[in-house]
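Build the 3D complex.
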Amino acid sequence: MEEAAEETTEAAAEALPVESKEVTDRGFEQLYRDHLRDVYSYAYYRVSDHHDAEDLTEQTFLQAYRHYPRARRESDGRSLRPWLIRIAHNLASNFYRDRSRRPQTPLDSIEPPAARHTTESIVEGRAELRAVIAGIEELPEERREALIMRFALGMDNREIARAMGKSDGATKVLLHRAIKQLRERLDADEHG
Amino acid sequence: MSMDEIRLEDLLADVFQPVEPPERVSERLSRRFASISDAAATDLTGWADELNDSELESLRDPRNWVRPVVAVTAGGVATGAMVVFELRRRGRRRRSRLDQTIGGLRSRTGL
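Done.
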């Protein structure tokens, strides 16, 4: 059923007129300007290294450019950001597979931001943030990824669902479980 | 949503602050797009130069489309356009035949 619907959408998209190169390039340029920071942020939080994040960002846009006209035809006016992040997500997965490793020092260079209040609250705030960072490192990759999309990129559930290839419902559950796991971890720290 | 949850979400927003890409990311991308386009256009130009009329004729057979498809795919949309542009410089007779072939290729392959 779902397959048939997909085929229908695909056929409809194929039937749409092909845009001129100029329109396509202008559209891609806009997409690039709008989402370079999103792709880079996502890449950085996935691979935890600026150099690798640059490579991943470059590969994402090269691949996106190759498939952009079709993606645009099939987008039906919806934002292409989830599609872009999905490309980055797939490339990041390959990145780990190729190198047979996961990040050795995830979130290693993330320092809690400078607080703006009293010395006491600065110390407390930084400790709290460090506990959150430690908790994030323990999350399964999928949960952590959903959190990156929500908080670093500000994506809503529907966008995250499209980027991760999940249903809206499954995405809501995924985010809920990620937050719950973090909450429990922080509670355990507090009472342990 | 409880206060704890709100507080945790605030902390997550602090941890996952968006990261500004360095300027060199854009520079690298521009260079990559340019080099890919150049390479594919050079490949197609060399290939078109080698063709004689009978080979051009044979391009009407889809079984002979592997090389142009690879070149067009390598460069993506812009390169495809550059390739067609290069081929258009090859004289009127050749141009019309090759354009038809490339046009057919592009419409069949969706490139």
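Residues 75-98 of chain B have pLDDT under 50 and may be disordered.
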